[in-house]
Specification:
Number of helices: 8
Mean pLDDT: 83
CATH class of the largest domain: Alpha Beta
CATH topology of the largest domain: Rossmann fold
Number of strands: 9
Helix content: 25-40%
Low-confidence stretches: 230-234
Shape: globular
Strand content: 15-25%
Radius of gyration: 23 Å
CATH architecture of the largest domain: 3-Layer(aba) Sandwich
Strand order of the largest sheet: 3-4-2-5-1-6-7-8-9
Distance between the termini: 33 Å
Number of domains: 2
Order of helices and strands: HEHEEHHEHEEEHEEHH
Structural class: alpha/beta
C-alpha cells in the first residue's frame, strides 16, 4: 500500500507509462546482453538510488572512503560531475573549482585531498583513465550516483532509499521521482534506508523490511542489517506471539503493550451502541 504522504502527480501517469516502456526496454537489452556491460580487474563499488533528488549518496560515498582508507586501500572516487561547466574526463586537483568538477566531487576532494577524485560522463572511460595512474596505483573505485549507468558492471551495488519516500511508495517520472521501476532494486546487493528518525520504532523496521526484503538502515547508532527473505509477514506479529509465550519484549515493550490494552478497555467503556 502506497504511503499517502508521498505526492504523486496522477495526471502525468500516461507520460510515466511511456517513459517506463523506454527504461524497461533499455534494461532488458542489458539483461539480454544486446547492450554490453564492462567489468574491471579491480573492485568497483557503485552507490546510487532509483529516485531523483537527495538520498545521501555523497555522505555514504565519504563513509566508504574512510572505511577503505582505514584498511590501507588506495581508493578513487568517480562521478559524472552534475551541473559542472566542463566536459569529459577531469582528474581533480587542489585548484579545481566546483564549477569545473561539480559540487559533490569538489566536496569529496576538499574532505579527502589525498585520494584521486575524477569526473566523467562516461564511467567506463573514467575508470580506464584512473587505472592508468601510478605511484600509487588505484586499488578500488567508488562510483557516486551510477546505478543507472549500466555500461559499467560494478562488483557491488549499494542502493539508497529515503525513509520518508521509500522506493516502493514512488512511481516513475514525471508522475513520481523514480528513474526506473522499483524492481530495479533487485540489481543491488545492498539496500540502505537513509534519513531514519532517531526514535524509529520496531514496528517501522518490520514494515520496511517486509516491503523491501533485504534492508540496511542507518540511524544515530550506526548502520544495521536485517535479512527477512522468506519471512514476509512474520517478523512483527510472529514475534509478538513469541513475546506472549516467552515473556520477552522484542516486538514491543510490556509497557507499550499494557498501554495499548488500557486504551482498548477505555475505548470499550466509552463506546455507545448504535442502533
Amino acid at each position: 500500500m502506497r504511503d499517502a504522504s508521498v505526492k504523486i502527480h496522477h495526471w502525468l501517469y500516461p507520460l510515466s507509462w511511456l517513459y517506463g516502456i523506454g527504461v524497461c526496454l533499455r534494461n532488458k537489452l542489458f539483461d539480454w546482453g544486446w547492450l554490453r556491460s564492462k567489468s574491471f580487474d579491480i573492485p568497483v563499488i557503485c552507490v546510487g538510488n532509483l529516485a531523483v533528488g537527495g538520498t545521501g549518496k555523497t555522505p555514504h560515498t565519504e563513509y566508504l572512503i574512510r572505511l577503505l582508507q582505514n584498511e590501507g586501500i588506495n581508493v578513487a572516487a568517480l562521478s559524472r560531475g552534475y551541473k559542472r561547466k566542463s566536459k569529459g574526463y577531469i582528474l581533480a586537483t587542489a585548484e579545481s573549482s566546483a564549477g569545473k568538477i561539480g559540487d559533490e566531487p569538489y566536496q569529496i576532494k576538499s574532505k579527502f585531498p589525498d585520494i584521486r577524485v575524477a569526473v566523467d560522463e562516461d564511467r567506463c572511460h573514467g575508470i580506464e583513465q584512473l587505472l592508468k595512474l601510478k605511484n600509487p596505483a588505484v586499488d578500488a573505485v567508488l562510483l557516486d550516483d551510477a546505478f543507472q549507468h549500466r555500461r559499467v558492471k560494478a562488483g557491488l551495488n549499494i542502493l539508497l532509499t529515503d525513509f520518508h519516500r521509500l522506493l516502493c511508495d514512488d512511481v516513475l517520472l514525471p508522475a513520481g521521482r523514480l528513474r526506473e521501476p522499483a524492481g530495479g532494486k533487485n540489481r543491488a546487493q545492498i539496500v540502505i534506508v537513509t534519513k531514519c528518525p532517531d526514535n524509529i520504532k520496531p514496528i517501522d523496521f518490520n514494515i520496511i523490511t517486509k516491503r523491501l526484503h533485504h534492508v540496511f538502515w542507518a540511524d544515530k547508532d550506526g548502520e544495521h542489517y536485517l535479512n527477512v527473505s522468506g519471512q514476509v509477514g512474520f517478523p512483527y506479529f510472529g514475534q509478538l506471539i513469541l513475546d506472549c509465550i516467552n515473556r520477552t519484549e522484542n516486538a514491543m515493550t510490556q509497557a507499550h503493550a499494557l498501554k495499548a490494552a488500557e486504551l482498548c478497555v477505555k475505548a470499550q467503556m466509552l463506546a455507545r451502541k448504535v442502533k
